[in-house]
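User: Could you check the structure of this?
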Amino acid sequence: MTADAEVELANRNGRLHPSQRGKILDFNFWVAAVLVVAGIVGLVALVVKATGDVGDANQLNEVTGKTTFSPVVMLIPGLLLMVLALALTGWFAFVCRRRLAEVRDGRLVAVTGWTHDLGEVSGKHPAPGQYPIYLYSIMERIRFTYLLVNGQRYRLDDAKLRNRIRGERTNIVLSTPRTKILVNVLPG
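Assistant: Sure, the predicted structure tokens are below.
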């Protein structure tokens, strides 16, 4: 059995083939993962710096003999940075966790239906409507082909995927359940 046949068989059974993991763990995933690591390192550095600032304020107060700086006031900027870094790190960790869950789970959502080819659309994208699957092209700065499936719009940048889908026939569109990433299109 060839590799394409194995991928198609796994997809028809509603499963993600191991060779398709790269579509989910793409560049965006790795950028988020690097930002999670950087956020953790940054949080540790902020905590170390904040505790050092309190010590500096206490030393300055001891040398001058009066309370010029409150250690709490010196902690506020660091605490605000820590809250921001923690929120951003948490968001990027959530994105990574969702993508990893998609790969670990391996399920795909299949939408089967007649693909209505609207041809070239001028002006703006068509609104989701009476058909489950639309295929259309639009001129933005250059011509892009889009696939509209149950209200979710996918730009078909992958030439292999774009050549696989044909309008005016039944197609099976496979996407991930949580992140709605387009994985494959098979003829129905």
